[in-house]
Specification:
It is a single chain. With 62 residues, the protein is mainly α. It has a domain of 31 residues. Helices cover 63% and strands 0% of the residues. It contains three helices and no strands. The longest helix is centred in the middle third of the chain and has 18 residues.
Amino acid sequence: MMMDDSARRRRLRDESMNDETFDGLTDARQTLALWRHDHNNVRPHSSLGNKPRRSARGASAI
């Protein structure tokens, strides 16, 4: 099951923004870009057989 937008926002807020103090907009954008990369390319997702989203997406295209 894909995570809906509100769940994705909650997870982002819980994992990144609640513990972070940003020095400015550029710092916030860089931090969020790192979180997005980790979420999509590194972190395993149980709904995808504990594979990262990018790996699971590539495997299903074959």
